[in-house]
Predict the 3D structure of the following.
Amino acid sequence: ADAGYDGLIVGDLAVRVTDNDVAAVAVSAPASLAIAEGGQHASYEVALATQPRGEVTVYAAGDGQSRADPAALTFDATNWNSPQVVTVTAIDDAVDEDDGQATVINHAVAGADERYRGQRVAAIELTVADNDTSGVDVTPVFLGVPDGGVGVYSLVLATQPQTSVVVDILPDTRLAVDVVCAANDEGTACRVFTPENWNMPQQVAVLRPAALLQAFIDHEIPSGEARYLAVDVATVTVLPEGDDGLPQEVGSIYLPLVAR
């Protein structure tokens, strides 16, 4: 209303704004996470701390002992603050390992928003329960063999070794077996299992003299990884084969009744 003020030009005021938002990937997980091979899994949540200026992808990857699902989480202006769940499962391998071993899920960030791209994200640490036990499967442990004939049994490892495992075959001196071992200095019979052939059964042929009613084949593991050196391998009991193709009873039971 005052003509002296009407239309007067007033200088601009420069104002500095201090922002209170920091771009970050928020990972929320329990203090202790445990998973098990072939069983228990675990989960945690991921979200962004601020609204991104473009699409942001958070990648999750295991270290060989575990896997993350999904492996990629996508955030944008519509879902940035909605937590997405990552499920972690143990990789069910065939190796006998220590229970409680550590595994890690690592993260990487990519996307159009330079404030997020390449940002460091906390890793998730978990412990893994193993479901493998070292052992040698012997089939059958009671072997029926025709008089003066040959019977066959097989050996195979229960878990994948990290080094070769030698199984010595120690038959009763009255028996003959068809295997010779180049893996030991004694030249005794043996079978050798490697990380490549550990689950492939290896056969042993046994010749039983006609007059022999009962005899035994013992086994030892003289070399290999520590877990297998402590394994007790079953004894094979060699018996006459009946008309039905099954081992005949000796003394009404199949137990080792004779002196060894």
In short: The two ends are 124 Å apart (CA to CA). Confidence is low (pLDDT under 50) at residues 251-260. The longest helix spans residues 226-229.
